[in-house]
């Protein structure tokens, strides 16, 4: 595959995440009231049919919260984390180096450093440096809306999946209840960026993130995009009144 030329939006997104990386985990816990950890647990459960020792690709892996959750639920798995932000990957490496005590286990059952089961790659989701059918499952948590051409990202996810492999996309969505949508939207637009700005000193970066949610398709439209990309058996699991959805699809 020829080298992928980053678009201006790729670069803007990368720079935004580089800027907020040092306080990214803390900010996630605060602005979501800690519920983001539960959302990831539910999302990984949707990979129930994936082989216990399968190879999973986690796109937009950030500091590896999702990758670590995969290992908690599938201790024999191997995870490849890919992200556009080198700052995020650097923090992920530091986090993984300190994760022991049963979060990942080797073939003999002994606890090992999680870094032995998670490899990290700097790559955009639209042009993945992996062969066709390389993975048993692909995940992406709160990242697909930040892929400039998310339809190209979905096609790449399908390409690198083996036949029968499952893709799992965890993302914000539009609640069906108008009253809940107004309350959620007010928090998301008026309060969340200010909290993010107070913690990171980068309010503009969090205003960009809230704008990206507003521009992203709702659950029904995204289901159609996954089917258009070639996924079969596409389904959606809504959580917390529909503010977050887990979308899954299979490579048939």
Brief description of this entry?
With 252 residues, the chain is α/β, with parallel strands linked by helices. 44% of the residues lie in helices and 20% in strands.
**Contiguous uncertain segments of 5+ residues:** 100-112
- Give the H and E element order: HHHEHEHEEHEHHHEE
Give the percentage of residues in beta strands. Answer: 15-25%
Number of helices: 9
Shape: globular
- The largest sheet has its strands arranged as 3-2-1-4-5-7-6
Structural class, from secondary structure content? alpha/beta
Biggest sheet details: 7 strands, mixed
The value of Rg in angstroms is: 17 Å
Q: What is the averaged pLDDT score?
A: 91
**Topology, number of strands:** 7
Quote the distance from N terminus to C terminus: 24 Å
Helix content: 40-55%
């Amino acid at each position: 595959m020829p080298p992928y030329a980053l678009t201006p939006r790729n670069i803007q997104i990368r720079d935004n995440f580089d800027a907020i990386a040092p306080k990214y985990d803390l900010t996630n816990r605060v602005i979501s009231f800690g519920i983001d950890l539960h959302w990831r647990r539910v999302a990984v459960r949707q990979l129930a049919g994936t082989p216990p020792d399968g190879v999973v690709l986690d796109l937009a892996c950030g500091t590896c919260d999702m990758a670590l959750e995969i290992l908690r639920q599938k201790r024999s798995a191997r995870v490849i984390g890919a992200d556009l932000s080198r700052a995020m990957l650097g923090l992920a490496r530091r986090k993984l180096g300190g994760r022991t005590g049963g979060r990942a286990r080797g073939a003999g059952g002994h606890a090992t450093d999680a870094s032995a089961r998670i490899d990290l790659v700097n790559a955009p989701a639209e042009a993945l440096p992996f062969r066709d059918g390389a993975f048993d499952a692909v995940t992406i948590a709160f990242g697909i809306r930040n892929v400039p051409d998310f339809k190209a990202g979905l096609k790449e996810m399908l390409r690198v999946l083996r036949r029968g492999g499952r893709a799992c996309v965890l993302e914000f969505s539009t609640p069906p209840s108008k009253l809940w949508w107004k309350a959620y939207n007010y928090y998301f637009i008026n309060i969340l960026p200010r909290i993010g700005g107070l913690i990171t000193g980068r309010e503009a970066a969090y205003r960009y993130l809230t704008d990206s949610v507003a521009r992203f398709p709702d659950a029904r439209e995204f289901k159609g995009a996954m089917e258009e990309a070639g996924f079969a058996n596409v389904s959606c699991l809504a959580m917390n009144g529909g503010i977050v959805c887990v979308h899954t699809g299979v490579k048939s």
